[in-house]
Design a protein that fits this description.
Number of helices: 14
Helix content: 40-55%
CATH class of the domain at 94-348: Alpha Beta
Shape: globular
Radius of gyration: 19 Å
Order of helices and strands: EHEEHEHEHHEEHHEEHHHHHHH
Structural class: alpha+beta
Largest sheet: 7 strands, antiparallel
Number of strands: 9
């Protein structure tokens, strides 16, 4: 069974629900990590990244995600802030850039795209045996990534208004030049050539700015799935990670069997992602195999069936099935945020409810396969 791990970007908010630039002070207080999740800085001071260890089971991953969220929250509290798993600030904000030479160059070079963008995503890393295997995986999981985006959608509000989107993070994030789906590569040589050609344009600084929906990690022997919002519910993060691992396993099996790649044009996948970001799990969504119009429910059902053998081998199927049922019933993070706003029509209530949901102590015995 493959190891997997998660990076979650969390928003830091004060008692008024406003984004709080306290990450540098928090990281100054952070203890050395011996064995457990870590925290790190991000491009803006109003956010912090948590990183789990590489792990084998959903139960262990859930424990690390919860511990990472509690570590971030514990570091934030002395500075009058809390850590919230929302993909954008529901309330107005003015981001403060992290003091870092690379970030400073990005701020100077890319204008409002860099200075005003504050979005919180979730990145799932799944271990691979070689770069050849990794490219074969990227070629075969691309069709399914819009469904993961729909399941993760957790940013309906931005700057004090309802955006009409379930994931407005998607809209904000795609101001960056290289964000989005990749074409089918077919070989490591083609992947390396693609990376080199994009950097050689001079439009991006380096390979670190290849903000593809999924890519080969620059630092670890993993495929990195980057398309999703940070989920509100820690259990949903584990559901997405388990599905991502199963998609990787399925892709490798297809590669070894010589099965042809199911190719949808990148333009179709961009439309599918845009629709997933608009309506999440509550509306229409192109089918991940045919690309034809359908519902999000049909796309999620197709995803579960596609990944079923791998989920069953990993012992994750029942947990993922229950998690998908929960997300479909609640509308996921976007649905829960809108429900919080509907009670009194106050954006501050949305932030408060999000903080509570971020730190709910769901029990592994009830919801996870250890």
């Amino acid at each position: 069974m493959r190891t997997f791990g998660v990076e979650e970007e969390l928003l830091l908010v004060d008692e008024r629900g406003l984004a709080a630039p306290v990450a540098p002070a928090m990281l100054g207080d952070a203890p050395p990590v011996v064995d457990g999740p870590r925290v790190d800085s991000e491009i803006q001071q109003e956010m912090i990244e948590t990183q789990t260890r590489p792990l084998l089971t959903t139960g262990d991953l859930f424990a690390d995600i919860v511990a990472g969220r509690e570590l971030a929250d514990g570091l934030a509290r002395p500075h009058g802030a809390r850590a919230a798993a929302v993909a954008m600030s529901p309330m107005r904000l003015r981001p403060h850039a992290t003091d870092d030479p690379r970030y400073a160059l990005m701020m100077q070079r890319y204008g409002l795209t860099a200075t005003n963008t504050l979005v919180c995503g979730c990145h799932v890393h799944v271990v691979i045996s070689s770069r050849e295997e990794g490219v074969a995986i990227l070629d075969r999981i691309r069709n399914w990534l819009p469904v993961l985006l729909a399941l993760s959608a957790n940013s309906p509000f931005s700057g004090g208004v309802d955006t009409g989107h379930s994931s407005y993070r998607f809209v904000a994030w795609h101001q960056w030049q290289s964000a989005g789906p990749n074409d089918v590569f077919g070989s490591v040589e083609a992947y390396d050539r693609f990376e080199r050609q994009l950097v050689e344009t001079g439009v991006i600084l380096d390979k670190g700015m290849l903000y593809l929906d999924a890519r080969l990690s620059l630092k670890q022997p993993t495929v990195e799935v980057r398309v999703t919002d940070v989920p509100l519910d820690a259990r949903d993060t584990v559901v997405l990670a388990a599905i991502a691992r199963a998609l990787v396993d399925t892709a490798v099996a297809e590669w070894h069997s010589g099965a042809p790649v199911c190719v949808l044009p990148s333009a179709v996948l961009r439309l599918a992602e845009w629709q997933a970001a608009l309506t999440g799990v509550s509306g229409r969504l192109p089918h991940p195999v045919t690309g034809r119009e359908g519902t999000a429910g049909q796309a999620v059902a197709a995803l579960l069936e596609h990944a079923r053998p791998a989920l069953q081998r990993n012992g994750d199927f029942d947990f993922v099935r229950r998690g998908l049922e929960r997300i479909m019933a609640t509308g996921g993070g976007a649905g829960r945020q809108r429900a919080a706003f509907a009670r009194r029509g106050r954006m501050r209530d949305v932030v408060g409810a999000a903080v509570e949901a971020t730190h709910e102590q769901a029990t592994a015995d009830d919801d996870l396969v250890a």
